[in-house]
Write a sequence for this structure.
């Protein structure tokens, strides 16, 4: 298990390691920006939001055969499933623990990206994809999901939970990635 999670690929080169360290620094700086901002302010304006958006929107279509509830939940579900599946594939199929750590970071960022959406379930002030707020278009996904469950009054608590989980996943992914990089540096082939 240790080799699977922290293994050093035999093809590690100086160039490859330097590239990974550069990527790690970018994700570290990004994490500090995302985590230090009030919920949603930094994430919604980042390129990561635009990366998450197609997965979110396609999730509505993918889960639509399972009824209205799953259609509403499906966008957010797909948004977190895609990076989780990528992490598992990179870890198990390609034995790339650093790549998997990046995907776990992405999973955490996806939760941070969803937190403002969840938080807006009652207020419906968030500007949606079409340029109008949830109040102007008869609600949005998280209003429907939480309303169906009778949990609408828990929107702020669930949003803080999503934000906390996302933060923990990002920090854990960075720690994992740093350990992988250290181990790869020890096994460097030039």
């Amino acid at each position: 298990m240790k080799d699977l999670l922290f293994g050093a690929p035999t093809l590690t080169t100086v160039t490859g390691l330097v590239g990974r360290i550069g990527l790690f620094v970018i994700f570290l700086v990004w994490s500090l920006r995302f985590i230090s901002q009030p919920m949603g302010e930094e994430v919604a304006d980042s390129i990561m939001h635009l990366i998450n958006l197609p997965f979110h929107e396609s999730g509505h279509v993918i889960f639509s055969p399972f009824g209205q509830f799953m259609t509403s939940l499906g966008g957010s579900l797909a948004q977190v499933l895609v990076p989780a599946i990528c992490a598992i594939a990179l870890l198990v199929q390609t034995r790339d623990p650093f790549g998997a750590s990046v995907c776990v970071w992405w999973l955490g960022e996806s939760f941070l990206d969803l937190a403002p959406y969840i938080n807006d379930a009652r207020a419906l002030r968030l500007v949606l994809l079409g340029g109008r707020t949830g109040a102007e278009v008869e609600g949005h996904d998280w209003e429907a999901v939480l309303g169906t469950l009778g949990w609408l009054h828990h929107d702020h608590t669930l949003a803080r939970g999503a934000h906390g989980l996302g933060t923990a996943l990002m920090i854990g992914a960075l720690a994992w990635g740093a350990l992988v990089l250290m181990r790869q540096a020890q096994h460097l082939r030039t």
User: Anything to note?
Assistant: Residues 2-186 form one domain. Residues 155-186 form the longest helix (32 residues). Helices lie at 2-6, 14-36, 47-62, 68-92, 97-119, 141-149, 155-186.
